[in-house]
Structures are given as C-alpha cells and as structure tokens.
Task: structure prediction
Amino acid sequence: MPGVCGRCRSAAAEVELPYARLRLCPDCFSDFFVSRVRRTVEEFRMFREGDRVGVAISGGKDSGALLHALRSAFPGLDLVALHVNLGIPEYSAHCQSIAEGLAGELGVELLTFDLGRELGIGIGDFEGTAFKGKICSACGTIKRRLFEELAMRAGARVLATGHNLDDMVGIMLDNFLHGYWGQFVRLKPVLPPLAEGMAARVKPLIRSPEREDLLYCLYRGIRFKEIGCPFSKGAKVRRMAGLLEAASERNPQFRHQLLNRFLELMPLIEGIAPRPEFSKCRICGFPSQGDICAYCKRIALVKGDRGGVPSESG
Result:
C-alpha cells in the first residue's frame, strides 16, 4: 500500500480502513483499535471503576484481541480470563494452551471449566444424540451457561465476550430473515444479569470488524488457535459472511450503518419483542424459562441420566 500513515505521518501505511478513510501504520492501527474498545466501553457504560471483569476467551483471535485490548485500554482494571475446555480431542488442548499462554503474558488470572473432568462428557458426545447435525447449537448453550458459572466462581460483576461487528450484523440479518424478534434483544451491547449474583454481559468489540481483530493479534504478537473446531462447519453467522462482504465492497460503511440503525431501533424492538419469564431450574437452580433449563436437558441427554428430564431436543 503506497503512502505514509495518516496519523503519525512518518511510518509506512500498512492498513487501509475505507469506512474511516484512514491508512495507518501498525503502531497507529493498534492505538486506533485500543481507543475504539475504550470508547465503546465508555459509550455503553459497560463497567465501572472497581468492577471485576471476566473475559470469556476461547483461544481464538477475537477473544484474544479483546483480553489484550482491555488490558491496554484499562491498565488498572481487575481482569480475570475464563476458559471452557470442551473436551474435543487435540482441538481443546490446543485452545487451552493458547488461553493459558495469553493470560500468563498479560498477568491475568485464568479460570478453566473442563467438561471432561467436571462433568465426564465432551461436546463430541452430542453426536450420539438428536443434536448430531446441530452440535454448534448444543455447544452454544453449554458454553453460555458455563461462562456464567465461571464468572460467578471468579466473583466477576461483568462478563465480556468477543462478539465482533461481523458477528453482530450477521446474527441481526439471520434474526430478521427468520423473524426471531425475541433474539434481537440478546444483541444489546449490555445485558443485565438474569438473576442476583450473576454477571452482566457486555460486548466491547461490537464496533470492531473481524478482519481488524486478526490484524491486531498479528501486529501485537497475540497467539491464537491455528486449527478450527471440527464441528463448526456451516455455522449460520459464517454463511452470512459472503453477503456482508459483497455489500461492503460497494459501501464500506455497510456493517457500521447496520449496527447503528439497530442500536437506534433497539427501544422499538424491545417494545414488540416477547418478554421471557424466568423461574429457577429445578435441577441446577439457574434462571430458566421452563421447569428444567436447556443446559440441564442437554447434559442429561448426553449422560443418558434423564431423571424426569423431558425428551425434546429443542
């Protein structure tokens, strides 16, 4: 890329950001990335001084960039890294090794939930159930619940996840096309705790395109997983990637405009979206929309210990 950095005016520009009309050198891009995370946190008041913030890290580029950027943007923040080992041969050990390495480099405490050690199962066990063709769905339910549990173990008031701009608009489009109005509310930048003692959920990377998470990791030497999950092929968000990329070629601000319109319309969406009512799961005590939560149903399905758990797979 010809030319010099549009910020420092001294180093060669390596990163072009068409939506911002910027060309940046690696150092200025990294500063831009961290500043955007800081502004996003402050704009939506994601946490306060003195809060203990748990960061869900998978070993991937997005969560790695998130943990590193939060440490850079808020040096005095009380951070704890949270990781779920899914019990997938080779893949899970690889991801945990990366999570341990990053937490160690940043001087951040790491808490891990190991499915095999604590529950005696692995995500691959769902291949023998009704979820054989949709393991990602079961995995998402399991991970959401376990990150909540890890946040409680860590005493974290806030749980930060690595949802990036591409994730947000991809899920938005999928929800819109299928009429999943109730799911829109879950995309809010800040979700309050479901129950007393649980953590609020925040998304500091919602304005960060996926490509820029990758670049930040590469420029800052942040190691991330080198192999993909064997069960992740065909995920819905990934199927939206081509559509988003094509639209962004014609309009570089397309993703950002979609997110901004969504945030503007959120009060209206909340007004028409069905409001779920929560009680306590009679097995684990966590919030549930039924007598038994989706997490406990799925664990029982794998372990074959139904104990009165309904047989539906949804």
About this structure: Strands lie at 15-17, 22-24, 52-56, 78-85, 109-114, 158-160, 190-191, 200-202, 279-280, 287-288.
